[in-house]
Design a protein that fits this description.
- The complex is a heterodimer of chains A (about 210) and B (about 550).
- Chain A has about 210 residues and is mainly alpha-helical.
- In chain A, about 80% of the residues lie in helices and about 0% in strands.
- Chain A has a single domain, classed as Cytochrome c oxidase, subunit III, four-helix bundle (Four Helix Bundle (Hemerythrin (Met), subunit A), Up-down Bundle), CATH 1.20.120.80.
- Chain A is built from six helices and no strands.
- The N terminus of chain A is likely disordered.
- In chain B, strands 1-2 form a two-stranded antiparallel ribbon.
- The C terminus of chain B is likely disordered.
- The chains are: A mainly alpha (about 210), B mainly alpha (about 550).
């Protein structure tokens, strides 16, 4: 890096940078909403085209595990919201503790989801599983494929979220992200976490509840 | 090294171009000006790759028998041409180069809001470009640039997944650029740079960034779905499973119609700058031009259905989309009238940039009016998927967006490089491109009206005269596009130093030296005057 000039900041003052960082994150969240919005539109179209098949396929999903997961994820958002609030007050240890809990709850969600996927595989619902195929009608398999892709993309987002929050926990604990001066960093990661949560709030009813 | 070259000027020694010479200093830069130059290299390379594909197409079409390319080869050539030109040239062209370079300079900022994300977006572009090159070298793609299912998922033979991944990745590059522009315009305007003083180029890029951010993710999601279906065989749009190919088309055009405005809105912004500088007169109807950009961005989201008039969409939906497609022409028309009103009684200088601007207006009006014809249901059913459509969108995208790109290049080249190019050659090029373009694409309107379908390379002999005219025009167009490569590169070494304001234009970017220093502004500028405050009382001379 010897001949590279030091990166210059375009900001005149820290407050301006905080506002810009937040606005940037909000715009990124808008792109995520459009991403999943496009997907959910497609699911909706499938439900309209094949109402009977969609509801019979939805009955194969595990409503109890899905509901439990919803509770887990909403609780993780609570932990995240508390961490954001505490980071603004400069409470370093409490912030990292709540961030830790957020990560743990995220991992619990993924674990439950894996159990669900395994059950679905064993039941022959997955497109690639062998043996008996309970989803015989065309629209049923289509609906299940959409469920698989939607929850898979959500799990991918959640995994990214877990990595982000883990890194943030480490940075907060080691004071590499000084609090409360850079509490906006916690807030930005928190916004992403809440979005992943909100996406699930839409995925859950459209796949599990409307049966 | 510099034998026969014009000596280096003091402003060049202090400029961003001299802040580090190593390749590494370029590849790790976070300076928006350098990233703009990196983009300029990359999109120029892809412009010529797409151009070679176009040349093959036109050469093949010179004879009715399709003697040059096989059927497969022809499909691959036009797919490559479409994919490269749409995603690797037109969409990033003006925003990623001139937008990147000029937005901070125009609003009095040191850089874009997120300099490292800006660099990351260039790397994503390059990575996506490598995927495209892989798809090309491995054997090509034959689905057409639209990747329609079930052709793309179940039947196509080429390297569809690589091309899909390329488009998905380049989409993230677009999203990052759009996000950066929006935050920059909101948060980094210098004191006095109010929304009513914002240059219209910045207004148009702001509207463009809105589309980039709102439309691109839908395409990303859609192509991820197609990719999953293609690679794993999990049915998503497969009609055998009850999937709906029309759903694919709806989602595809929800992005790809607004994408047309991603291509042409920045061109509108360029035009507002070029026309005003050439006329040396305050722009006519500032707010009409600014808000018409926003209106186009909004209405542009509601017209996608006009791509599916004959694809099985309901008649009711078609009628609504037809109406909205006609409505979106209104703000575009407002802009054209405003530019012409700006020229009225102006003291016009026939600089190359102005000639390109005039070329743009002429070609864009033809492209826009034929767009209105196509928006009419009765006409579209007749000419759908014919050369009429091909000619229409080339008038908008090549006659419009590419011509504006060259206009911008000739207008801001002295600012970017600090050197003046040969004005006469610039004028000749503008004329060649205008003539070559019309000769290439006007015959295609007639071909299409006579019934020549697009994407066929074997055709009845009676169409040959028009096809040969078109191919001849394409060769003139190619010369027009190659010429600037020579005289602009020549100017780097031998051009006269441009001075900070060679065209006598208003705008903050002309108050800094050419090329601009690394920090853009020595001290924070303060804006006290309205935009386009012509005539400049003390215009700097061209020396």
């Amino acid at each position: 890096m010897s001949d590279q000039p030091a990166a210059h900041s375009p900001y005149a003052e820290p407050a301006q940078q905080r506002e810009a960082d937040l606005l940037g994150m909000y715009i990124f969240l808008v792109t995520e909403i459009m991403l999943f919005g496009g997907f959910l539109t497609a699911v909706y179209v499938v439900r309209v085209l094949h109402p009977e098949e969609a509801s019979s396929a939805a009955k194969h999903l595990n409503l109890w595990l899905g509901s439990l997961n919803t509770a887990v994820l909403l609780t993780s958002s609570l932990a995240m919201a508390l961490a954001v609030q505490l980071s603004r007050e400069g409470k370093l240890r409490a912030t990292s503790a709540w961030l830790c809990l957020t990560v743990v709850l995220g991992l619990v969600f993924l674990a439950i989801k894996s159990v669900e996927y395994y059950q679905e595989y064993a039941e022959g619902l997955m497109p690639l599983s062998d043996g008996m195929r309970p989803l015989s009608k065309p629209g049923e398999q289509l609906f299940f494929n959409f469920y698989l892709v939607g929850t898979g993309l959500h799990a991918l987002h959640l995994t990214i979220g877990i990595i982000l929050v883990s890194g943030l926990t480490r940075r907060v604990a080691h004071s590499e992200t000084p609090l409360p001066r850079r509490a906006v960093t916690v807030e930005i990661v928190g916004l992403y976490w809440h979005l992943v949560d909100v996406v699930w709030v839409f995925i859950y009813p459209i796949f599990y509840l409307a049966r | 090294m510099t034998v026969g070259a014009t000596l280096e000027t003091p402003s060049e020694r202090a400029s961003y171009l001299r802040a580090g010479y190593s390749l590494r200093s370029w590849l790790t830069t976070t300076d928006h000006k350098r990233i703009a130059v990196l983009y300029l290299y990359a999109i120029t390379a892809f412009f010529f790759i797409g151009g070679i594909a176009a040349a093959l197409i036109r050469l093949d079409l010179a004879t009715p028998g399709g003697d040059l390319l096989s059927n497969e080869g022809y499909n691959r050539a036009f797919t490559l041409h479409g994919v490269v030109m749409v995603w690797f040239f037109l969409i990033p062209s003006i925003p990623a180069t001139f937008g990147n370079f000029l937005i901070p300079l125009m609003i009095g900022a040191q850089d874009l809001a997120f300099p490292r994300i800006n660099l990351a977006s260039w790397y994503l572009y390059v990575l996506a470009g490598l995927f495209t090159l892989y798809a090309l070298i491995a054997g090509g793609v034959d689905t057409g640039w639209t990747f329609y299912t079930p052709l793309s998922t179940l039947f196509a033979n080429g390297y569809v997944a690589a091309a899909l991944l390329a488009v998905i990745i380049v989409g993230f590059s677009s999203i990052f650029t759009g996000m950066n522009f929006i935050v920059t315009v909101h948060k980094l305007r210098c004191p006095g740079m109010t929304w009513s003083r914002l240059p219209l180029f910045v207004w148009s890029l702001y509207a463009t960034a809105m589309i980039l951010v709102l439309a691109t993710p839908v395409l990303t999601m859609l192509l991820i779905l197609v990719c999953i279906e293609r690679l794993s065989g999990i049915g998503i749009f497969n009609p055998d499973l009850g999937g709906d190919p029309l759903l694919y088309q709806h989602l595809f055009w929800f992005y790809s119609h607004p994408a047309v405005y991603i291509m042409v809105l920045p061109a509108f912004g360029v035009l507002s700058e070029l026309v005003t500088a050439a006329a040396r007169k305050r722009i006519f109807g500032y707010w009409f031009i600014a808000y018409s950009s926003v209106a186009i961005a909004v209405i542009g989201f509601l017209v996608w259905g006009h791509h599916m008039f004959v694809a099985g969409e309901s008649t009711y939906a078609s009628a609504v989309f037809s109406f909205l497609s006609i409505a979106v022409a209104v703000p575009s028309g407002i802009k054209v009238y405003n530019w012409i009103a700006t020229l009225y009684k102006g003291s016009i200088s026939l600089d190359p940039a102005f000639l390109f601007a005039m070329g743009f207006i002429g070609l864009f009006v033809i492209g826009g009016l034929t767009g209105l014809m196509l928006a009419m249901l009765a006409v579209d059913v007749h000419v759908h998927d014919t050369y009429f459509v091909v000619a229409h969108f080339h008038y908008i995208m090549v006659g419009g967006a590419v011509t504006a790109f060259f206009g911008a290049l000739h207008f801001w080249w002295p600012k970017i490089t600090g050197r003046m190019y040969n004005i006469t050659w610039g004028r000749i090029t503008a004329a060649l491109i205008f003539l070559g373009f019309n000769l290439t694409f006007f015959p295609q309107f007639i071909l299409g009206y006579l019934g020549m379908p697009r994407r066929y390379h074997v055709y009845p002999p009676e169409f040959q005269v028009l096809h040969v005219l078109s191919s001849a025009g394409a060769s003139i167009l190619a010369v027009g596009y190659l010429l600037p490569l020579i005289y602009l590169l020549y100017s780097l070494r031998h051009g006269q130093p441009a001075g900070s304001n060679p065209w006598g234009a208003t705008g903050l970017e002309w108050t800094v030296p050419s090329p601009p220093p690394k920090q853009n502004f020595a001290e924070m500028p303060v804006v006290t005057r309205p935009p386009y405050d012509y005539p400049i009382r003390d215009p700097m001379s061209r020396e």
